[in-house]
Amino acid sequence: MTLFELVLIFVLVGVGWQFWRIRAISESASEYLTRYCNQQGLQLISLSRRKTRIGSYRGKLDWHTEFNFEFSGNGEDAYQGVLVMRGRHVTQTTLPPYRI
């Protein structure tokens, strides 16, 4: 096995690991928003990742991710909120005023 092949294997493993890490963050966001909306008496309509970048959080490099989500307070109107995560930790949930 040459040095190039060894480096290529490490790069592929690293990319695969980061893919699974981003998927885990997305799953955490979905679970958090489902719980949050149930507690607030809201209906979660959709969730999408808006931005993902690498940054420092609590002294270590991790993914900084922003999600957009749609929710309804009365079942008729739809509103958009923003969820910000650092790694798998929720740091901000922003909702606009909505009808109940």
From TrEMBL:
It holds the Pfam family DUF3301. InterPro entries: DUF3301 (IPR021732). This is DUF3301 domain-containing protein.
